[in-house]
Design brief:
59% helix; single chain; 6 helices; extended
Amino acid sequence: MSGVDRVGNWDKFAKVVHDYIASFTTVKYGSGQTVDLMHFTPPHISIWNVLKYAIRIWNGRPKRHDLLKIAHYIEMAWTYSEGDVNACTCPSHVKEELEVNLRDFSDEFKILKEIEEKEKDIHGVFKKVIVYEDGEGKWHCQGDPRMAKLITSARQKMV
């Protein structure tokens, strides 16, 4: 690529996003004829979804349409905030609740991080860990047995 054509590149990208939304999103969620729950969803939820997909990419587990989903969520945050970036920030009460929940599950997060590091392959890609309940309330894990304990502990805290 000899030069950067920001407007031309944006136009190409916008066409790809347009086609993705037309082909996948509107088919799944409708296009104006039905009530879209995103219309009632605060803009910071769109930003949360941007983070979710960006982190998945960052962690080496991207899915085919993640970049297009990020672009679409940015558009929704922009549309529903009417372009006001301050309207996209996470309300303090939501942050406080999230911080409390994170503290409550700090031990589980530490174990999960250890398991994640152990379960990465030589390329740094997280291998799938299969966790299942045996029908008698006991959790089992293919891979690191601490995962079953982690899920049991987290479920008890959620009850």
